[in-house]
Fold:
Amino acid sequence: MKNKYRENETFENIVLEYEVIEDCEFTECTFTGCSLSECTLNGCVFNECTFVNCSFSEIKSSGTEVCFGVFEKCMVNGVNWRTLLPEVPLACPIERLKDCKMRYNTFYKIPLNKFDFTGNDITKSEFTECNLSGSSFKGCDLEGTEFFRCDLTKADMRDAKGYRIDILTSKLKNARFSYPDVMALLDGIGIKIE
Structure:
């Protein structure tokens, strides 16, 4: 697919593997039941698009922007969200996540303050140098997900499980946690509780 502009269109059940998609722009489009596996996105723009029951795996990108995307019931594996960050200051590639399963995702310097991750599964992923202040991870499965040098001020981590937070490099003031998962915070400083 190359050099196309689409606005307010619906795309259903498109399955692409190992494809190169170049210089395409989608504005306020809806993608339902679509699957992209090991595809490359070059110079593409996805502006305020909605993705429902879609699957994304090992997407590579160059010069591509996702701006204010809505993801519902999607599977997202092996995506580096930094490579999809819009050039617009403070714009975020993700507007909303609902009932999504994400594995091996990388979030580096992504502005996600006051973001609602509630109830999503974000496993074996990494948040590095992200502003997550005021965000809610309530009830999330975060098994193997690491937070390094993040601002988690006033974040809600209650009923979240499996997370690893570097408490020496992250800001945690007024963050809310629930027992027993909060005990994992002590792992990073080598304290043993008997």
User: Anything to note?
Assistant: DSSP finds no helices and 22 strands in the chain. The chain has a mean pLDDT of 91. Residues 113 and 132 are 4 Å apart (CA to CA). The first strand starts at residue 5 and ends at 7.
